[in-house]
Design brief:
- Keywords: Oxidoreductase.
- InterPro entries: AKR, AKR_Detox_Biosynth, Aldo/ket_reductase_CS, NAD(P)_OxRdtase_dom_sf, NADP_OxRdtase_dom.
- GO terms for molecular function: oxidoreductase activity.
- It is a single chain.
- The protein has a single domain, classed as NADP-dependent oxidoreductase domain (TIM Barrel, Alpha-Beta Barrel), CATH 3.20.20.100.
- The protein contains twelve helices and twelve strands.
- The longest helix has 18 residues.
- With 357 residues, it is α/β, with parallel strands linked by helices.
- An eight-stranded parallel β-barrel has the order 3-4-5-6-7-8-9-12, surrounded by five helices. Strands 1-2 form a two-stranded antiparallel ribbon. Strands 10-11 form a two-stranded antiparallel ribbon.
- Helix 1 packs across helix 2.
Length: 357
C-alpha cells in the first residue's frame, strides 16, 4: 500500500480508505449495505493487513449507527487508525437547529460523534455539505474551538463547489481560522466534472483529495451492462436496482462505452474492471485516497488490489479517450487561447485536451 501526503498537512494516508456508508443498513442506506460489527471487524482486519490506515464515516449514515459500529469494531485498536467523520445533515428526531453548519449544530454534532465512536478525538472532521445560511466565519470558528479543545485534529470539506471552497479558504486566511486539509469529492470515469474546478483548486491550494464512490456506485464494477432496450441492466440487489439515485447517469452511451473498455482492459490484464477503474483514478492529479465501501470481504479484497495495479500508457490513453467529456465554457476558450500560460493547476484539467486546440 502506498501512502500520500494529505494536501499540505503533515498527515500521510493510504491510497485506499475504508468507507462505511454500508455499515448499519438503516433506512435508505440499506440499499448500500447492512454490515454489522462482526462484518466491520472483518473488513478492518483485511484493510489493516493491506496497510490501510484511514476509515471514513459520517453521523448521518444509518442515523449514527455506522459511527457506533466503527467505534465498536476499532475498540482497543483505535489509535492504530485515522478516523474521519462528517457533520451537516439532520439526525432524527431533529429540531429546527439540528441541521446545517451553525456553531450550535457543529459543536453538538462533534460531541455526539465522539460518543458514538467511543473516542476522544476525530482525526479528520469534515463539513458534509454546503450551508448557505450560516456565515462561514461562524462555522470555521466552531471548528477552531474543537481543534483548540483537542477534539479535532484536521478539518476538511465534502461536496463543495469550486467557488464555495475558495470562499471558505479565503475566510480561513483572512481571520486566522482553521484551513481545510482536504476535500472529499465524487469523481470517477463515469463523471469527470471534478476536473473542471475541484481538482485544479486542490493542486493550487494544496488540498488533499478523498474520492467517494470511485466506482460510481458500482456502475464501473463490471457487473452492469446495457440492456436490450439500451438502458442500464442492473444486477438484482444492487443499489441501482433500487431507488438510490447517486450518481445520476447523464450520458449513458459514454458510460456503456467506458464499461466496455474497462472490461476489455481487465480481461487482458486478468484483473477485474473495478481494479482498472480504481487504478486509473490513482493516476489523476491531486488524488490522495479512494474511499471504497464493500458488502463483504471478497468485494473489499478485489478493490484493495486496485491500489497495486499499474496501468500502461496505452491503457490509460484508451480510458482517457473513451471517458473524456467535452470542455465547458470558459475552459474550451482558455484551451484555445491561453495554453501558452497554463500553470500546474490549469494543466490538471487541460493536459488531455491540449492536442485538440
Amino acid at each position: 500500500m502506498d501512502y500520500r501526503q494529505l494536501g499540505s498537512s503533515g498527515l500521510r494516508v493510504s491510497t485506499i480508505t475504508l468507507g462505511t456508508m454500508g455499515f448499519g443498513g438503516a433506512g435508505n442506506f440499506g440499499n448500500v449495505g447492512s454490515g454489522d460489527v462482526k462484518e466491520a471487524r472483518r473488513q478492518l482486519e483485511l484493510c489493516r493487513d493491506h496497510g490501510v490506515n484511514l476509515v471514513d464515516t459520517a453521523d448521518v449514515y444509518s442515523d449514527g449507527r455506522s459511527e457506533e459500529i466503527v467505534g465498536q469494531a476499532l475498540g482497543a485498536d483505535r489509535d492504530d487508525w485515522l478516523v474521519a467523520t462528517k457533520v451537516r445533515f439532520p439526525m432524527s428526531p431533529g429540531g429546527p437547529n439540528d441541521a446545517g453548519l451553525s456553531r450550535h449544530h457543529v459543536l453538538r454534532g462533534c460531541e455526539a460523534s465522539l460518543r458514538r465512536l467511543g473516542t476522544d478525538h476525530i482525526d479528520l472532521y469534515q463539513l458534509h455539505e454546503w450551508d448557505g445560511r450560516t456565515p462561514l466565519e461562524e462555522t470555521l470558528g466552531a471548528l477552531q474551538t474543537l481543534v483548540e479543545q483537542g477534539k479535532v485534529r484536521y478539518v476538511g470539506v465534502s461536496n463543495y463547489s469550486g467557488w464555495q471552497l475558495l470562499k471558505a479558504l479565503g475566510a480561513s486566511e483572512r481571520h486566522g481560522l482553521p484551513r481545510f486539509a482536504a476535500e472529499q469529492i465524487y469523481y470517477s470515469l463515469q463523471a469527470r466534472d471534478a476536473e473542471n474546478e475541484l481538482l485544479p483548486a486542490a493542486v493550487d491550494q494544496g488540498l488533499g483529495v478523498l474520492v467517494w464512490s470511485p466506482l460510481a456506485g458500482g456502475l464501473l464494477s463490471g457487473k452492469y451492462s446495457r440492456g436490450r432496450d439500451g438502458t442500464l441492466k442492473s444486477p438484482k440487489g444492487s443499489r441501482h436496482a433500487s431507488d438510490w439515485s447517486e450518481p445520476p447517469i447523464d450520458f449513458p452511451d459514454r458510460l456503456f462505452a467506458t464499461i466496455d473498455v474497462l472490461k476489455d482492459v481487465g480481461r487482458a490484464r486478468k484483473v477485474s474492471a473495478a481494479q482498472v477503474a480504481l487504478a486509473w483514478l490513482l493516476t489523476r492529479p491531486a488524488v490522495t485516497s479512494l474511499i471504497v465501501g464493500a458488502r463483504d470481504t471478497d468485494q473489499l479484497a478485489d478493490n484493495l488490489a486496485g491500489a497495486e495495479l499499474v496501468l500502461t500508457d496505452d491503457e490509460l490513453a484508451r480510458l482517457e479517450q473513451v471517458s473524456r467529456p467535452p470542455l465547458p465554457y470558459p475552459y474550451w476558450h482558455q484551451n484555445a487561447t491561453a495554453a501558452d500560460r497554463f500553470g500546474p493547476a490549469d494543466l490538471a484539467l487541460h493536459q488531455p485536451y491540449l492536442h485538440d486546440s
